[in-house]
């Protein structure tokens, strides 16, 4: 669509034109009412003056000395006609003979009427009356001045109306143009992003109008999408990298079977070994998919009130024999019931993963403790050990998928345990802190306050 | 025993069919949900193994439809590893058990046996017996050759599940799911630790073992 056509098809243009039209219409109605009211009040004024003049003529005629009556009335007319204000029209006649006035004599007509003077084509409004039998008086006003004023008024109104309509149209165009321009920048940004320029953003000021606010919201969304894509890319790279090692091992093993195994038993043992490697790979995939699903948040709809004390008691029931076999001193300090809104299985898996880590990264006879309770009004879950702990700079890194500390590279494990813990924590709107237990590691999960009220 | 397999992937179908045939089962194969429903209506099967993802009507809908027709043939549902909630969905639809692909034949066989046994067991006995072992489910007591054995609650639950399936191999995952109600594998030797404690308690003072390890597959209690 061409640019001008797009200008006319914007919503803002249509609105501005609509408002302009409505403004013009209301103005026309206003003008109409003013016109009619002015006209009526002007005419009412005229009639009052006319009636005053007639009354004074009648009074002069009736109160004059006998024989002087017509003369007195004529004098009033003459006096009035001397004034330079030449709107006034008078006629005083006896029978059909004009005694005074500036109108030709005419057939006496009584009451209020308008007539046109043939010579000037001016319209005259006035009242005719009988002063005495045979004596007729007419007083009127030339309406030409009123007509002229009205014409001028209407013309002025017309000009104002026209100007306002033109202004409204101009305003509509300007509004529409600014609208189209801003939309165009958004469109261009979107096209750019679609073309792969992921870092492009919509220009938007911090404290702007609704357009700016929309732009800011879109930009925030783009930031989030970019971060997610970045993490996805990172995960794919990590997976590719971390899968290569076990797959290479598997391949080597199969190669060796082919070259070295002689007897049935040797084959069986080698195949068992290969199967175990496959199972390890599958376990990594399962863990990755579980993390991905937790991060997707679908499980949130299944949230119920979960008692943290119950979770760690379950963890104790499950882990007590394992800890005994691993020669760790395992303590559970479950206080009163602490309710959080969450998924019991995931919370149990969180504790389970932390306990697995505690066993894997501490020497024999280490104290390992699980605790639940309230801290500053927030439900907390703590897994603490007295092992070597994690150096401060590594604490944020260990949460990443596949990240493993140098010293634990050689130990079994997928490097996904804490990543899953972090995902579960995030799903529950909780906070994860890896603290120093002096010595050892103290993992604290702080749940949101509102979560306890479920 | 006739088993109906509803699976669209020929590779998996072949793997399951061959494996179950070796165990002496007759397997009938359907490739779509509609076909599966027709066959289920026509024949009398002891068990149905249904893939969750099928072309056209999926496994969940198929099971739901059959259950609505009050067909009570036990169902074992198969799925590719994807869903956290797949298990719950499957069980809600009316499946009796759920197994994630890829799986070992021994795992499938163990579950098939457990389901068939569970559904064919009539009445709810309050006493379980396996060899010289006796369990009273109401009194929560266990005795071997008449001598009382003291068990922790977790150990009791573990033995109860094994004895209910006496003579059949129970896999590690089945124990995690049914004894500890875990929908994930904690990945440490939890089952092994609990099992060794249970064993030492019930075998103490006896020359024969009651619980046997089936290497690479699971555990079995002598019937």
UniProtKB/TrEMBL annotation, chain A:
- Domain of life, per lineage: Bacteria
**Catalyzed chemical reaction(s):** ATP + protein L-histidine = ADP + protein N-phospho-L-histidine
Quote the protein name from its UniProt record: histidine kinase
Listed GO molecular functions?
kinase activity
Q: Where are its TM segments located?
A: 16-38, 153-175
Q: Which Gene3D superfamilies match?
A: 1.10.287.130, 6.10.340.10, Histidine kinase-like ATPase, C-terminal domain (3.30.565.10)
Checking InterPro entries in the record gives:
HAMP_dom (IPR003660), HATPase_C_sf (IPR036890), HATPase_dom (IPR003594), His_kinase_dom (IPR005467), HisK_dim/P_dom (IPR003661), HisK_dim/P_sf (IPR036097), Sig_transdc_His_kin-like_C (IPR004358), TCS_sensor_his_kinase (IPR050428)
Coiled-coil residue spans: none
Automatic annotation (TrEMBL), chain B:
Please report the stretch or stretches of sequence annotated as the Response regulatory domain.
2-116
In the record, 4-aspartylphosphate modifications are located at 51
Q: Which SMART domains match?
A: REC, Trans_reg_C
Looking at the UniProt feature table, which residue ranges are given for the DNA-binding region?
125-223
A Pfam family found in this protein is Response_reg
- Indicate the segments forming the OmpR/PhoB-type domain, all copies: 125-223
Which keywords belong to this entry?
DNA-binding, Phosphoprotein
Q: What is this protein called?
A: Response regulator transcription factor
Q: Which organism is it from?
A: Rhizomicrobium electricum
């Amino acid at each position: 669509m061409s640019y001008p056509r797009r200008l006319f098809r914007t919503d803002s243009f249509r609105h501005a034109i609509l408002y302009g039209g409505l403004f013009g219409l209301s103005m026309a109605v206003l003008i109409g009412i003013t016109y009619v009211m002015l006209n009526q009040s002007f005419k009412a004024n005229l009639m009052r003056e006319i009636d005053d003049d007639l009354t004074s003529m009648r009074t002069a005629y009736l109160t004059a000395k006998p024989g002087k009556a017509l003369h007195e009335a004529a004098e009033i007319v003459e006096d009035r006609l001397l004034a330079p204000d030449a709107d006034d029209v008078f006629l005083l006649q006896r029978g059909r003979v004009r005694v005074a006035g500036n109108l030709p004599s005419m057939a006496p007509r009584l009451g209020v009427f308008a007539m046109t003077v043939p010579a000037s084509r001016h319209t005259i409004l006035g009242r005719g009356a009988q002063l005495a039998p045979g004596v007729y008086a007419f007083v009127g006003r030339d309406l030409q001045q009123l007509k002229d004023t009205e014409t001028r008024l209407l013309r002025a109104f017309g000009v104002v109306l026209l100007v306002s309509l033109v202004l409204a149209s101009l305003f509509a165009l300007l509004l529409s143009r600014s609208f189209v321009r801003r939309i165009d920048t958004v469109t261009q940004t979107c096209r750019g992003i679609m073309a792969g320029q992921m870092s492009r953003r919509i220009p938007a000021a911090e404290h702007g109008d609704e357009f700016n606010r929309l732009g800011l919201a879109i930009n925030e969304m783009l930031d989030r999408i970019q971060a997610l894509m970045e993490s996805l890319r990172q995960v794919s790279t990590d997976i590719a990298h971390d899968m290569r090692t076990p797959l290479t091992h598997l391949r080597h093993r199969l190669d060796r079977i082919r070259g070295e195994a002689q007897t049935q038993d040797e084959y069986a043992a080698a195949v068992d070994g290969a199967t175990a490697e496959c199972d390890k790979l599958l376990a990594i995939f399962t863990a990755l998919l579980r993390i991905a699903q937790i991060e997707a948040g679908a499980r949130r709809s299944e949230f119920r009130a979960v008692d943290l004390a119950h979770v760690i008691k379950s963890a104790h029931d499950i882990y007590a024999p394992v800890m005994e076999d691993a020669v760790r001193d395992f303590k559970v300090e479950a206080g009163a019931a602490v309710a959080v809104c969450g998924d019991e299985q995931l919370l149990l898996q969180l504790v389970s993963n932390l306990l697995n880590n505690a066993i894997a990264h501490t020497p024999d006879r280490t104290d390992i403790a699980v605790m639940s309770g309230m801290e500053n009004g927030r439900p907390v879950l703590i897994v603490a050990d007295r092992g070597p702990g994690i150096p401060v700079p590594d604490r944020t890194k260990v949460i990443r998928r596949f990240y493993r500390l140098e010293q634990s590279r050689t130990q079994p494990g997928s490097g996904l345990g804490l990543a899953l813990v972090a995902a579960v924590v995030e799903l529950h709107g909780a906070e994860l802190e890896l603290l120093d237990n002096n010595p050892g590691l103290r993992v604290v999960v702080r749940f949101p306050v509102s979560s306890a009220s479920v | 025993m006739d088993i109906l397999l509803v699976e669209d992937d020929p590779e998996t179908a072949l793997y399951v069919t061959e494996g179950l045939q070796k165990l002496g089962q007759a397997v009938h194969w359907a490739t779509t949900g509609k076909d599966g429903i027709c066959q289920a209506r026509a024949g009398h099967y002891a068990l149905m193994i249904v893939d969750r993802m099928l072309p056209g009507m999926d496994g969940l809908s198929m099971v739901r439809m059959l259950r609505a027709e009050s067909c009570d043939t036990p169902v074992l549902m198969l799925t590719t590893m994807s869903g956290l909630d797949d298990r719950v969905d499957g069980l809600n639809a009316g499946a009796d058990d759920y197994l994630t692909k890829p799986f070992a034949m021994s795992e499938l066989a163990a579950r098939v046996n457990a389901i068939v046994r569970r559904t064919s067991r009539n009445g709810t006995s309050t006493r379980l017996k396996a060899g010289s072992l006796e369990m009273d489910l109401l009194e929560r007591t266990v005795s071997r050759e008449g001598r009382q054995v003291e068990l922790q609650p977790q150990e009791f639950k573990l033995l109860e599940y094994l004895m209910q399936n006496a003579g059949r191999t129970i896999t590690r995952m089945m124990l995690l799911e049914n004894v500890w109600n875990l929908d994930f594998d904690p990945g440490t030797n939890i089952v092994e630790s609990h099992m060794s404690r249970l064993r030492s308690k019930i075998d103490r003072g006896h020359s024969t073992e009651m619980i046997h390890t089936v290497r690479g597959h699971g555990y079995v209690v002598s019937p």
